[in-house]
Write a structure and sequence with these properties.
Strand order of the largest sheet: 3-2-1-6-5-4
Largest sheet: 6 strands, antiparallel
Number of strands: 6
Strand content: 15-25%
Bound molecules: methionine sulfoxide
Radius of gyration: 17 Å
Number of helices: 5
Structural class: alpha+beta
Order of helices and strands: HHEHEEHEEEH
Length: 200
């Protein structure tokens, strides 16, 4: 990304072959993260790469982005008041860890998700990918956007194996993600986990 190569060019995919699009997106992420370890910067560019890759493939993705684990030193029960949710307030009072909205592409989304709640909180607590082909069949799904039909959430782990956040993608159609999509998202999440300083 030096000289006369524009950063925005990384958002242009000249093929509609899924494997090629994903390989190109991963190569761009590798190149971008080589010179940058600040988590917000890398998550912002990763959200853009995902968004444009899915668009090039004609997928009906309506949200692609991240939630990051809130540092305990910033976690206060009073924060929950901003969501006006008594259950969230109680979870925070007893010290459950929280995910905070991070960089994303798409419409405005829920700001706070408690570990163990929704698809994001489930993936964060378990430390494993959660694929939801039909959100109506996932008990506790948090509907930030009522038009979302399917979703994939992949945890982001640091070098020590601790969960630092989750990668979340929503789709407007049921069963919107196949194995190749999930492999791409897991590769990207792995790369992000290794490429960022998580001293939040
Ligand atoms: N549906 C998610 C909430 C986040 S939004 O999809 C952006 C969940 O159930 O955790």
């Amino acid at each position: 990304m030096q000289g006369n190569v524009h950063h925005a060019d990384a958002s242009t995919f000249t093929t509609t072959d899924k494997s090629e699009v994903y390989e190109t997106a991963i190569s761009s992420a590798v190149a971008l993260f080589e010179s940058q370890r600040f988590w917000a910067t890398n998550l912002a560019n990763a959200a853009s790469l995902m968004w444009h890759a899915f668009d090039a493939l004609g997928m009906h993705v309506n949200w692609a982005g991240f939630y990051v684990v809130q540092p305990r030193r910033l976690q206060k029960p009073s924060d929950a008041d901003t969501e006006g949710d008594k259950e969230v307030a109680e979870d925070k009072r007893v010290g459950k860890r929280t995910l905070m909205l991070g960089p994303f592409m798409g419409k405005v989304a829920c700001q706070i998700i408690i570990f163990g709640r929704g698809v994001c909180g489930t993936a964060a607590e378990a430390g494993t990918t959660v694929v939801v082909p039909d959100v109506e069949k996932f008990p506790g799904h948090i509907a930030c956007d009522g038009s979302t039909k399917s979703e994939v959430v992949v945890p982001i782990l640091d070098d020590a194996g601790a969960v630092r956040g989750v990668l979340d993608v929503d789709c407007l159609v049921v069963d919107g993600f196949d194995e190749t999509d999930v492999q791409f998202l897991e590769s990207l999440a792995g790369l992000i986990g290794r490429s960022c300083e998580w001293d939040l």
